[in-house]
Design goal:
26kDa_periplasmic_antigen; DUF541 domain-containing protein; SIMPL/DUF541; elongated; alpha+beta; Translation Initiation Factor IF3
């Protein structure tokens, strides 16, 4: 909230201030793609489920490296073995074991995302959990958004001061960054038919920043 405050206690270096919140936004095209996909297999015995899963996962990895993706860009994100149950007449009845192996694939660029998904599915992947996009210059864009937020706060404070007929200090007496949860850009969709390439539309990344600033006025 924007406003004015006064304090005669002398304990606060920001007595008689105009308080404003500034916001900044910077848009940028993503140049990295993060894809989480893998395979889930089920069997009444755990070892066959694990063996089948291992075969599929190996086939996926080999197919992806065949596309030119470095092995270091393919890593296990999670591996779980879980018993599955049915409920009959209020009782828990064991059905089978489910083995899930998820891989995180990091791509430089975004153009190959659809081909990577199609290749993985053709190789046996039956889970495409998440696709997100990022920028290799995120720190630069975050700094730009922060600078815009400070400028926005300064402009708001100047407007308030002008309306009140007072002057404000050239330098704020206090600046506080407002930390907010970052928003990832994700793509989720049902896979298309095998004779068509999966379309991926990343759009733009938005970097946001906000600050709370206090200006002395007189």
């Amino acid at each position: 909230m924007n406003g004015m405050s006064g304090n005669h206690s002398g304990e606060n270096s920001c007595d008689f201030t105009i308080e404003v919140v500034g916001e900044g936004h910077v848009s940028a095209a993503p140049d990295r793609t993060l894809i989480t996909l893998g395979a889930a297999t089920e069997n009444k015995d755990v070892q066959p489920a694990q063996s089948e899963n291992a075969e599929i996962s190996t086939a996926i990895i080999e197919a992806l490296t065949g596309l030119g993706i470095p092995r270091s860009h393919i890593q296990t994100k999670s591996y779980t073995v879980e018993p599955q149950y049915d409920y009959e007449d209020g009782k828990q009845v064991f059905r089978n074991y489910k083995v899930t192996h998820l891989l995180l694939i990091t791509l430089d660029g975004i153009a190959a995302a659809g081909k990577v998904i199609d290749t993985a599915v053709t190789s046996g992947a039956n889970l495409v959990v998440d696709i997100s996009f990022a920028s290799s210059e995120s720190e630069k864009h975050e700094a730009e958004a922060l600078a815009l937020a400070v400028q926005d706060a300064q402009a708001k404070a100047a407007s308030i001061a002008a309306a009140l007929g007072v002057s404000i200090s050239a330098v704020p007496c206090k600046v506080q960054q407002i930390v907010r949860d970052s928003e990832s850009v994700r793509y989720k969709s049902a896979l298309m038919a095998s004779d068509a390439s999966t379309p991926i539309e990343p759009g733009q990344l938005t970097f946001k920043a906000a600050v709370r600033v206090w200006y002395l006025f007189a």
